C-alpha cells in the first residue's frame, strides 16, 4: 500500500484558502485527472480516497471515513458504484455528516444526468450546510478507453443493447477542469453545472469515430437488452453491475438526456471537447493500439 497524500511544489494560479483536498475515486477516470491537476498547485495537499489508499477509504466501511477526512477542507466526491444504486442516499447523508464534523468547507459532487436517485443525493449535498458544486454529467467518453467498452474496442467488436438514442458524451478531462475550478475558486460555490459534450451522437457514431481515429475497423453490434444482460452474467460480471447497466440502458437511455447543454462553457468560458477530438487524442496515447485486425 502506498502513501497517497502528496504536497506540491509547482506553481499556483488563482487558488483560494483550500489547502487539503480529499479526492474520492482518486485513481479512477475523473478522480485521477482531478488529483493530477491539483498536484500542480503550490501549498495544496492532495489525499487520494480509495480502498487501496492510505488511509483506506471504502464506501462500504463508514467507520473508516473519518481517517480519510481528517484535516481536509475540500472533497471531490465521486461515489461507487453509482449514485443510482440502492443505499446511495444513506451513504451520501452519512458522508456529509462526517465531512461537516471534520470541518470540510466545500464538496464538489460528481453526479449523473436523468437519474432521480442521483438527484436525491444532490439534494443531500445541497442541504448539508457545506459549500458545494454539483457536476451533473452525461456518459463519459472514457468508457470507450478506460472502462467497460474498452474490451470491445480492443476486440474490434463493440456489442451493446440496441438503441438509436443519441448521447452527448462528455470528456472526463473537461469534468476534471470544472471540478478543479470548483474546488479552488469561490465563484462556483453552490452552482449546479450540467456537463455534456458539444453534440449528441449515437453509440454507432461513437464507434465509427473510434474506427476513424484508430484506423482499424471496429464493428458495432446490437442485441436485445435481455440478451446483453444474460451475456454479461456468463462473463462473470457481478449482478449489481449488470443491474446498473440494465437500468442505464433500459431506463435512463430513453432520450431524456439527449440534448447537449453548455455547462462546460458556463463554468470555464470555453467549449466542451468533441468526441472526435477525444478519439484522436486517445488514439495518440496508444491505449487502442491492440485493436484486433
Ligand atoms: N461512467 C459514466 O459514463 C458516468 C456518467 C455520469 C456519472 N458517473 C458517475 O461517476 C462515478 C464514478 O466516477 P469515475 O468514473 O471517475 O470512477 P471510476 O473510474 O469508476 O473509478 C473507480 C475509483 O473508485 C475507487 N473505488 C472503487 N470501489 C470503491 C469503494 N467501494 N470505496 C471507495 N472507493 C472505491 C477505485 O479505487 P480502489 O479500487 O482503490 O478502491 C477508483 O479510484 C459514479 O458515481 C458514476 O455514477 C459515471
From TrEMBL:
Residues 122-268 form the NmrA-like domain. PANTHER family: PRESTALK A DIFFERENTIATION PROTEIN A, PTHR43162. Pfam families: NmrA. This is NmrA family transcriptional regulator. SUPFAM superfamilies: NAD(P)-binding Rossmann-fold domains (SSF51735).
